[in-house]
Amino acid sequence: MSSATTTTNALVQTTGRPHPERLHPGMYPLMGATQARYADMDANAHLNNLALESLHEDARAVLNARAFPGIYSPQDRQLRLVTSQNAVHFLGEAHWPAVLDTGVGVGRIGRTSFVASSALFRDGVCISVCDTVLVALGAEGPVPIPASAREILQGLQLRIS
Hints:
Layout: H1 3-11, E1 30-35, H2 49-67, E2 80-90, E3 99-109, E4 113-122, E5 125-138, E6 141-142, H3 147-155
Antiparallel strand pairs: 1-3, 2-5, 3-4, 4-5, 5-6
């Protein structure tokens, strides 16, 4: 193996497969359902990866709005949430038409950030999981998560059996 290959391989990191418990709907404190759109299909009649990622994003938005009231109202919000990392696993296929169940909860809470952990289910089978690190930002950069939001986030943590 050449040193160039070794150096390149050391620069690239991926994330391992999700823990098997992540594949169960009961793990997620917030559940919802959404109808896939015809436009979400690719040329192979699968719901495409970007469409699935947008469903993860919608689930995160529900969680964010619950924990940070007014977060999506520019005139009311005291801080912003920005994504610093996003890891998605596509585990199975879904075809249109489909109703997908979405689950979301909090995977981890730090001082200025937390992990929103979501999953998509088709007929009870997990087809995708996503973990997104969200950072609380004020005018000058990262800020501690407010106590009121931290309390709500703690109540929305993933349910470990």
